[in-house]
Amino acid sequence: MPFEIERKFLVAGDGWRADADSGSIIRQAYLANTGKMSLRIRIRDGRATLTMKSAGVGIRRLEFEYDIPLDHAAALMDLREGSIIEKRRHLLPWYGLTWEIDVFQGENDGLVVAEIELPHEDHGFPLPSWIGAEISGDPRYSNASLCKRPFSRWGKAPAGERAADPEM
To answer: I need a surface site. Which of 22, 110, 122, 159 has the fewest CB within 10 A?
Structure first.
């Protein structure tokens, strides 16, 4: 079975930039997010993919990804739930692993998240100095959540609701 095992962290500062690549632009949208699984369309570097991910059990979840034609991806993005996620992803090699640092744009501007995919749940690795708080288990930071409640709206209540506690 194809599993994804990853940990996510907020990024504290720009210390990563000197060692990272120049990055690539990602546009992605969610067609469904049931709580048990999400269905995502992504366009990156002239390649389009359709990805299904299960809900996580800890830091591990099922992931299935398939190439699709770009024009199919563009048509499917029109069927999305919420907004399109826009970000520049930078890659940074680290002790045999690779950090993916996402610098969000658009409605999630100001959010910078680092993810590292692991070969197994117990795989240890040193944390770089620019890593902030771990957010692996915080659903607010999932891209599927950010398309519905973008980072720019955190702390702001939708019409008719009380403002949310940012620590929730």
So the answer is: 159
At 45, is the secondary structure helix, strand, or coil?
coil
Long-range contacts of residues 103-108, Cβ cutoff 8 Å, at least 24 apart: 103/23, 104/146, 104/151, 106/150, 107/83, 107/150, 107/151, 107/152, 107/153, 108/146, 108/150, 108/151, 108/152
How many angstroms from the chain centroid is the CA of residue 76? Answer: 19
Query: Quick one: tokens of 50?
Result: 């359709």
30 given a catalytic annotation:
yes
- Specify whether the CB–CB gap between 82 and 28 falls below 8 A: no
The residue type found at 45 is: D
**pLDDT tens digit sequence for 87-102:** 999 999 999 999 999 9
pTM surpassing 0.70? Answer: yes
Q: Which of 49, 99, 51, 95 is nearest to 69 (CA)?
A: 49
Amino acid at 167: E
Q: What is the mean pLDDT of residues 134-147?
A: 94
Take residue 57 and report the two structure tokens written for it: 């059990």
